[in-house]
């Protein structure tokens, strides 16, 4: 009996994993883009047109994230447990800008769309922690320039963070899990096709409903993340990665 395969694993998460923590997704019926025009708040053009509107949009979401009743859920906790049990084999790539994976204990983590609780200087690219009422009109603590602070978030039309590291991990993985994402936005939506092109990994989608890329996955587990993710992690820890 060969030992169970334990990795390396690449996990991609989207807004659906944080839904049961009380954070809205983007494209569900009650999602953010049903209420706000993404062109106004999630593009460089929108920020150039009305920086105050953009800062207010993200400050509102920051305060929501920092309210007492928003905390990691059982799905975040299960991914942190998997990393703790299979240290160095688990690489978590999130499209989410919340800090719930960190608060659950995940460490080998990359925010490919940036982070809500950080700001970046448009003049020197230094990244600073966000604090209440910090806006574009403030000085950059690194270069002293004024009026260049922007959310450290990747907007539509901008290059996501960490793409080389992600591509390398996808090429080497034995398991690719996609959790809580609609498979709408590239390059993340194309990760499963890249893994399947190489053909050496098992690919699984865990989502409330079939995503746009559902047919590309070898396995699909539908249901709320707080139920299906802990159960799948338990299976992995018991039986290893399916061959
Ligand atoms: N459990 C599991 N999945 C869920 C849950 C839940 N409780 N609730 C919703 N979902 C699923 C939805 O069915 C949907 O497929 O999560 C997915 C969320 O999809 P989107 O709202 O499109 O969010 P996401 O895929 O993360 O968006 C990707 O788009 O707007 C940009 O930069 C933004 O990172 C974001 C990117």
UniProtKB/TrEMBL annotation:
Task: Identify this protein by name.
Answer: NAD-dependent protein deacylase
A single Gene Ontology CC annotation of this entry is: cytoplasm
Q: Where does NAD(+) bind?
A: 14-33, 95-98, 180-182, 207-209, 225
Record-listed substrate binding positions: 58, 61
Q: What does this protein do?
A: NAD-dependent lysine deacetylase and desuccinylase that specifically removes acetyl and succinyl groups on target proteins. Modulates the activities of several proteins which are inactive in their acylated form.
Quote the catalytic activity from the record. N(6)-acetyl-L-lysyl-[protein] + NAD(+) + H2O = 2''-O-acetyl-ADP-D-ribose + nicotinamide + L-lysyl-[protein]; N(6)-succinyl-L-lysyl-[protein] + NAD(+) + H2O = 2''-O-succinyl-ADP-D-ribose + nicotinamide + L-lysyl-[protein]
Gene source species: Roseospira marina
Cofactors, names only:
Zn(2+)
